[in-house]
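Incident log, structure service

09:12 report received: a user says their structure output differs between two submissions of the same chain.
09:20 pulled the input from the user's history:
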Amino acid sequence: MAAGVHTGTERQATGLIDALNTRYHKTALRVFAVVVVAHWAEHLAQAAQIYVLGWPLPEARGVLGVPFPWLVKSEWMHYGYALLMLAGFLMLRRGFTGRSRTWWNVTLGVQVWHHFEHLLLLVQALTGAFLAGKAVPTSIVQLLAPRVELHLFYNAIVTIPMIVAMVLHTRANSDNASARCDCALTA
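09:34 re-ran on a clean worker, output below:
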């Protein structure tokens, strides 16, 4: 294919990404934030079940995991969420400028690693070959920290810089002067 020539599918993908980072950026960020906060709430509920209510670890499954216990045990579900997050950070990245883009990139970098860890867990679950001779799928950092606490930590270090990026992005200042969306609050 000649340079600069795009197929219809490539134009549609580029058009969607452009729309998500211009006229729909504010809405897309709000939807994405709700998804992130809901996931974060699941991990906080699981931690409360363990540390406040004293539930045994196998019973502490978060809000959705209580009626649907298979959710907590599904590496496909966890991997799918990590992939969705990675895709969201990539798709919404172009809308950020200046310092907000730097913070969004930090979040993206952390999510790349978090996604890799979930991919590693999924591959282990599918193959039955577990890392370091463990009895269950185990991530690299999980060799040093328990899974519940590790995922609380991962969610914190993904969510906090994401929120910083979003707050900076909504400020009407010279840092956001080149933003092509209407996310910045007006005075």
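09:41 both user submissions now match this output. Likely a transient worker issue. Closing.
09:42 reviewer note: The chain has one domain: 10-176. The radius of gyration is 19 Å.
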